[in-house]
């Protein structure tokens, strides 16, 4: 059983990550923390609470950072709409937020559990995680690992070089990738090309029926228009749920070791995750006068078993629908 804190900015694919985490018996969802990203933190928090209300998910939800550490705020309204979760209808939230700020929730939860038992799953900009490290660096040694959606070793989606979550708060991503803990980068190379809501998956979800299936189908119907239109992706990408899936069944992704650096200041490359792959020979240093030491300690998600991924989504949907 993997104990996780899902740090998110719902967000259509974030909502599916919530459902997968809540609906799989191998995940112990300790809490949901929210951050600004796809929309402002008021909307992402409301969307998280409403999703939990609608589908009987009873976990603490703690509201987090309203904006990035240093950069100007960038929202993904053109992808996720004016509410951050346009398309499906959701009820108003019927339960209260956790009284703590997300940063304190993360620190207190990690410190309250045995060392190396809690995994952080950031699937929005990494602002909360970076602030939690700053506020209490003990969490670095205490966390089991970090499985983060974001970055890319090939192309970006908000710029040619950068993926949205990293671009939206590159300084926070820099803090997270520099910290001495185990980070897996589940980037666009996997999520935007392989984790797609294919017609076959949509048919399987439709066959389950009921309100949760409708919610997921409505999510994909909306995202098909923005992913298809703006990004020219064939089917909706289910980015964030890939992190949860990889924790449920590590065999669902193949990985390679790399040393990842975040570009915080490039004119055309701000937010780029520069991946130095061990398997490809590995460059000996990152250049610059510092000639920084290379350490292939990061893990990069490479290939997704799409069939198994779809099975997990359908299984979670069936379980939640029975509750
Ligand atoms: C990431 O950006 C957001 O729009 C999605 O929710 C996902 O976390 C993909 O680049
Ligand atoms: Ca997200």
From TrEMBL:
Entry keyword set: Glycosidase, Hydrolase
DNA-binding is among the record's keywords: no
Record flagged with keyword Hydrolase: yes
Residue span(s) of domain Inosine/uridine-preferring nucleoside hydrolase: 4-310
Family annotation (InterPro entries): I/U_nuclsd_hydro_CS, Inosine/uridine_hydrolase_dom, IUNH, Ribo_hydro-like
SUPFAM superfamilies: Nucleoside hydrolase
Pfam family for this entry, one: IU_nuc_hydro
Record's signal peptide: none
GO-annotated molecular function: hydrolase activity
Name of the molecule in the record: Nucleoside hydrolase
């Amino acid at each position: 059983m993997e104990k996780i804190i899902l740090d998110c900015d719902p967000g259509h694919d974030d909502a599916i990550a919530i459902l997968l985490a809540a609906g799989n018996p191998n995940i112990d969802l300790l809490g949901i923390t929210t951050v600004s990203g796809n929309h402002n933190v008021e909307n992402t928090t409301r969307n998280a609470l409403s999703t939990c209300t609608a589908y009987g998910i009873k976990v603490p939800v703690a509201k987090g950072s309203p904006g990035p550490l240093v950069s100007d705020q960038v929202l993904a309204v053109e992808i996720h709409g004016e509410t951050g979760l346009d398309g499906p209808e959701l009820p108003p939230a019927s339960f209260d937020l956790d009284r703590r700020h997300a940063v304190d929730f993360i620190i207190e939860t990690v410190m309250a559990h045995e060392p190396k038992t809690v995994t952080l799953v950031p699937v929005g900009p990494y602002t909360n995680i970076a602030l939690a490290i700053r506020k209490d660096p003990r969490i670095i040694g205490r966390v089991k690992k970090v499985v983060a959606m974001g970055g890319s070793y090939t192309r970006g989606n908000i710029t040619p070089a950068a993926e949205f979550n990293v671009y939206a708060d590159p300084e926070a991503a820099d803090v997270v990738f520099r910290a001495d803990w185990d980070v897996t980068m589940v980037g666009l190379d996997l999520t935007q090309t392989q984790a797609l809501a294919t017609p076959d998956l949509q048919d399987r979800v439709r066959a389950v029926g009921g309100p949760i299936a409708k919610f997921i189908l409505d999510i994909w119907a909306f995202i098909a228009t923005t992913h298809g239109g703006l990004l020219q992706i064939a089917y909706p990408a289910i980015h964030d749920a890939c992190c949860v899936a990889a924790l449920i069944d590590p065999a669902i992704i193949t990985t390679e070791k790399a040393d990842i650096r975040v570009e915080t200041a490039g004119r055309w490359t701000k937010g780029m995750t520069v991946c130095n792959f061990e398997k490809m020979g590995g460059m000996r240093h990152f250049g610059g006068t510092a000639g920084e030491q290379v350490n292939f300690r990061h893990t990069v998600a490479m290939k997704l078993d799409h069939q198994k991924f779809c099975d997990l989504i359908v299984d979670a949907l069936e379980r939640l629908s029975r509750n």
